Amino acid sequence: MEETQQLLDEIVLPAEIERYRGVYEKAKEANQVTDQNKFSFSYCLIRSKVKSDVRNGLTLLRELYDSTTSDDAKRDYIYYLALGNARLGEYEAALKFLDAILHLQPGNHQAKNLKDEVTRRMNREGYVGMGIAVGAGALLVGGLTAAALALLKK
Question: Nearest Cα to 59, choosing from 71, 33, 41, 36?
Answer without folding.
Answer: 41
